[in-house]
Structures are given as C-alpha cells and as structure tokens.
Prior knowledge:
The protein has 358 residues and is α/β, with parallel strands linked by helices. Helix content is 40%, strand content 15%. Strands 6-5-4-7-10-13-14 form a 7-stranded mixed β-sheet. Strands 11-8-9-12 form a 4-stranded mixed β-sheet, covered by helices on one side.
Amino acid sequence: xxxxxxxxxxxxxxxxxxxxxxxxxxxxxxxxxxxxxxxxxxxxxxxxxxxxxxxxxxxxxxxxxxxxxxxxxxxxxxxxxxxxxxxxxxxxxxxxxxxxxxxxxxxxxxxxxxxxxxxxxxxxxxxxxxxxxxxxxxxxxxxxxxxxxxxxxxxxxxxxxxxxxxxxxxxxxxxxxxxxxxxxxxxxxxxxxxxxxxxxxxxxxxxxxxxxxxxxxxxxxxxxxxxxxxxxxxxxxxxxxxxxxxxxxxxxxxxxxxxxxxxxxxxxxxxxxxxxxxxxxxxxxxxxxxxxxxxxxxxxxxxxxxxxxxxxxxxxxxxxxxxxxxxxxxxxxxxxxxxxxxxxxxxxxxxxxxxxxx
Length: 358
Ligand code: MRU
C-alpha cells in the first residue's frame, strides 16, 4: 500500500503551470493533492497551513514565484523585475516566522538580478532551474542533518519530538525526523514520542501519521505529558525542527517547544534543534528580534472539534511559535555539522564551512 511518504510534499507541474501540494489540513483522514496556480492560491495555501513547515514553505514559494514570473509577458527587464518584486513581497507576507520563505524568494530574486542582461525567456528558464535546485538541495540537506543527528543517539533510544518537522514539512526525510528514518533503515529501533501539538495538532495528524505509516515505533502523547515521559526515563533526546535560529542560538519553533526544552533541562535530556542553514538567520541577533506569528482565535476554540470547546467571545492568545533560549539547547544540527555553545561562534563557523565547500 502507498504510504504518505511515497507522495511528494511539494512538486512542480510545469506543463500545467501549477505547484502541487498535499493538502495537509485533510491529513490523516484524506490524502488529496491540490494544484495551486494563482498567487492568491499559493498565499492562501501557505497561510492556511495546507502546506507548512519551514523548508516546504520555502520550496512552495520558489516554485510559486517561478510560475508567476513565467506568466509575465513583457520583454523589458525593468517592467519584469518590478512585477517580480510585487509578487515576491506578496508571497513573503503569507507567514512571518519561518525564514526559509524569504530566503528562498531572495535566492530567486538574485537569479533575476544576476542575469538582467539576458533575454527574459532565459531568465525564466534560470528561475525554474533555481527553484528545482532549492528542492533538491533540501533533500540533500535533510539527509546530512539525519546523519549528524544519528551520531548523537544510540540504538533503542527514546526520542521526543514536537510539531511536525518530518517529510511533510520538507521534501524528503524531514529535519527532526531524518535521524529517525535513517536509524530505522539501519535497525536502530528508536521509541519515538510525538507531542500532539495544540492547537493545530501537527504532531498527531502529521508526525504520528508519517512515522506510524513508516513502521516506526511511535507513541502519541498530549503536550502536557512530556514531563511524565521524561521523568519516567523514557526519553534520551529531544529532536525538533525550527523556523528561525538567531545568531546567538535562540530558536523559534512551534509553540510549546520552549516548554519541552525547559522540562528536558530539568530531567537532563539533551535538546537538539535540527536546522538547515537556510533556517539560520545570522541577521537576527537574538530571539527577541524574531517576529512571532499570531493566529486566529478559532484555531484554539474550535478548529478540529465538532463543537466549540470554549465560551463564545472568550479572549484567546494564539502565538504560532515560541522562542527557546539558547542555553536550553544542547546542539544545533545542521547539514555542516553540530553547532554547540557559544552559538555566536559555532554558527559562524558552520557558515564559513558552507562557504568553503561551495
Ligand atoms: O505552523 P507550522 O506547522 O508551519 O510549524 C512548523 C514547525 O514549527 C516546524 O517544527 C518547523 O517549521 C520546522 S519543519 C522542518
């Protein structure tokens, strides 16, 4: 039977001018692929979390801006570039926290600027090449993160994860799940605890689903149970993804990650942030400067429930992400190795290594 991991999270259907995604709001009940053609459809799919997870959002935006550029009819670079910038700013406004979105769009913009002397048709072809490369790079990066992450754990270990930093949040392997999938292929038999992740249940609907369908030993827990499983000694490491890592190592990830990290500190469980360098933003000095997305109240009071679960009109606070302070983080696992405290230095070294290898 086809597993959810046999589907592509994000794909380009160039012949039909569409970005094809799995509508993740319907999972796990229904696997439906949807085609996004207009800027509005792409914006809405990102905002409504039909496609979500920092790397997957970046790839969607790259394919999206390519398709929008492909439709521009002018032969004049200045006219083309002005319209490109307009569409880029629009897609970039769909979600504020995951830096991969603006990172991918900036990469696409660079292609336009570096080739401004070439005919528009050639620029369009180069934009397609870059978007495809962003996706392929994501697969290589996640695999490398998996290898480094696997070096931090032993066969049979208990691993806790929060939200979905799995294949559904990227293109293959995921980030936080990459060590788990690679370990599974090599007979490590991890025991994984997946936090359900209120309010949008990415842990229950997506992580538990993709791990379970891949034959991984996964146990779903409510967010308020992580202390219990750690106190019981069932967790040897926490692996989570991230949406933006600041230069000092402070990390924004799904709301609740900081609580998991604080509890893990209490029980001496190391917390590893799995971070493609695309998610590390050296231009943001600390977590205090990271914009945290605020989402609508109905996600807390009634979404996924048959009836509202709170009194109508009650005040709701619904930040989508929180910041985990760097001193709660045992390591930041990138595709160039594991960064450790002091992160201001080690993250810089990671980027130096990246520059040397390119
Ligand atoms: O709101 P979401 O579902 O997009 O949040 C996703 C997360 O917080 C992930 O942990 C993060 O984007 C990393 S995905 C590899």
